Amino acid sequence: MQNEIINILPNQEDYGIGFADMAESDRLPSSANFVGCVVGFLNVFVIRLRRLLLAAALSFERKWSDTLDDHYPYHYAVVIGKKLDDAIIDGIKDGPTMVYYELYKATNDELNLITAQISRYLLQNGIPSVQIKSTMQESDIPDEFAKTLRLNFSHKMAATRAGLGWIGKTDLLVSEKFGPRLRLATVLTNYRFDNLGIPITESRCGKCNICVEACPGQAANGQLWNVNIYRDEFYDAFKCRDMCRKLSMERLDKKISLCGLCVCVCPQGKRDE
Ligand code: B12
Ligand code: SF4
Ligand code: SF4
Question: Taking 50 as the threshold, does the pLDDT of residue 41 lie above it?
Answer without folding.
Answer: no
